Structure formats: C-alpha cells, structure tokens
Amino acid sequence: MNTLHNAPQLDWHLLHVFLAVVDSGSLSAAARSLRSSQPTLSRQIGELEALLGVALFERVARGLKLTVAGEALLPALRQMQLGANALAIAAQGQTQALAGTVRITASEMTACYILPPILARIRAQYPEIALELVVSNTVENLLERQADIAIRHTRPSQGGLIAKQVGEFALGLFAHRDYLQQVGGQIDITRIADYVWIGEDSADILLRRFQQAGFAIERDFFAIRCDNHIVAWQMALAGMGIGNATLVTASQFPQMQRIWGETPIPGMPVWLTAHRELRQSARIRAVFDALATELGQIS
C-alpha cells in the first residue's frame, strides 16, 4: 500500500490554528491572537481532528490540554512552522519595493520618550512605509518574525541576525524639585538609605547597575518598586522619590533635577538587530539605516 498516496492532505491554515491554540492555552486566547472568533477556531480544530481521525485536545479546568495524539503531532508541526517562517523571511527579503510595513520592537521608555520624533522623521522621509511599533521589555524573536527590527539594550544572542551597536544612552538619577525641597535641597551620597528610591519589582536591571557602580544594596533598598518603567518614571515626576532615566528622556522634564551628575552608573548600549534575510529588503534596510543614524546621535 502506498501510504504517501493515502495520507491526508493537510491544510496549513488548520495547522497554524492548532499551533496558536497550543501556544495560547485556550480557544478564546488564540482567537484574540489570530483576530478570529472562538466558534470559528473550534470548528477549524474539529476539521483538523476529523481529517486526522484523532482527538487533539481535551478540556481541563483552565482551558485545553493536548491529548497523546496531539503531543505526538506537535514536534513535526513545529518544524513545519520554522520552515514556513524561513520561507516567508527569505521571500520578504528579496523585495526592493519601499511600500509596505516595517515592524519595530523597543522597550517601554525608548518607545515612549525617544522614538516618536525619530519615527516622525522617518515617516516624513519614507511616507510609503507603514510603521508598526511593538512595545515590550522582552526580547522578541526575530527568527519567528515577531518583528523586523529590534531596538535593544543587550547584544542579541540568537544566530542568523544582524546586530549593530549604534550608541549608548547615558543614564542619570533624577528627583522632582519638590522632593528635593522636602529633603533639604540636595542628596547626600553618604546617606543614600535616608531617601526614597524608585526601582524595579521582579526585574533586577537597575539593582545590578547600582551594584556595578559600587553601591552594596539589595532589592528592599527601593521603597517603591514597579517593573513598568514608564509608570516608575511617572512616580518620580509626581515627587514620590528618586528615579532613573536616560539623559535624553529627563531633558524633556525641566522640573526634574539630576543628582550626583557624575555618578558612574553604567549607560545602556543601544543595539539594532534584524534578520539577515530581511536586510535585503529595501524598506527594512531604509528604516534600519535611518534608526542607526538617529539613535547614534543620542548619548
């Protein structure tokens, strides 16, 4: 018997839906990510199960769980997904048309306080290019096409990427002038424990920067903690304590005064990354180069 001849003809779209449900953990979450409806996805999963002749999911208290058959199918589908993504990236990388979309990912503070005027100038220069901005402090996976260009503050470790350090954002410690008045007009570096500091909750980036600068502190040194950097900065703007920001960000707020102007808190390196194939795309190359120039002028 020719088993290849009798194998079911699989619809890649149905397989894509299956992977979305696996990754999301529920039909409702997958529907949101795919911009579809829960009944539609339920019907499509049913079609795939009928085509394969096996049940792929079972309902549990918190959503859906893969059956044994579903677990057996998953590794092969992951390989198909990688192949499809690689094919799409290679095809996209060959286009020389400027018209189209470029998807950029950047951290919260960079996206909010640094990128808007830069992106405005890029749009003015290339009005035919649509820009999508993914705001996230996590490292998006460019190999899975979650973004075309990433602006990050650590060197990427993934292979298959172009990485270029375009500069470094200088950091400073800042307090609202009202807070400084409350504590006597200035901050005494020998009494740092006497002041209110705004830091991170579960993340430890700022904590490590303080430690690198020679301050022997732990997490509870920060009396106010928040992992959302924009919110933490807003609390500093409200006069709640001493916060940190890049100099280019703080320069937009004249009510914020820098303390210890030369305190050696390490700056943030600025890395631009893109998939190697995508650098052959004219529009992605244009945005990449424009970002490199603009960000390289900030220190």
Automatic annotation (TrEMBL):
GO terms for molecular function: DNA-binding transcription factor activity; sequence-specific DNA binding. The keyword DNA repair does not apply. CDD domains: PBP2_LTTR_substrate. InterPro entries: LysR-type_TF_proteobact-type (IPR058163), LysR_HTH_N (IPR000847), LysR_subst-bd (IPR005119), WH-like_DNA-bd_sf (IPR036388), WH_DNA-bd_sf (IPR036390). Keywords: DNA-binding, Transcription, Transcription regulation. PROSITE patterns: HTH_LYSR. One of its GO terms (biological process) is DNA-templated transcription. The keyword Methyltransferase does not apply. Belongs to the LysR transcriptional regulatory family. This is LysR family transcriptional regulator. It comes from Chitinibacter bivalviorum. The lineage of its organism: Bacteria, Pseudomonadati, Pseudomonadota, Betaproteobacteria, Neisseriales.
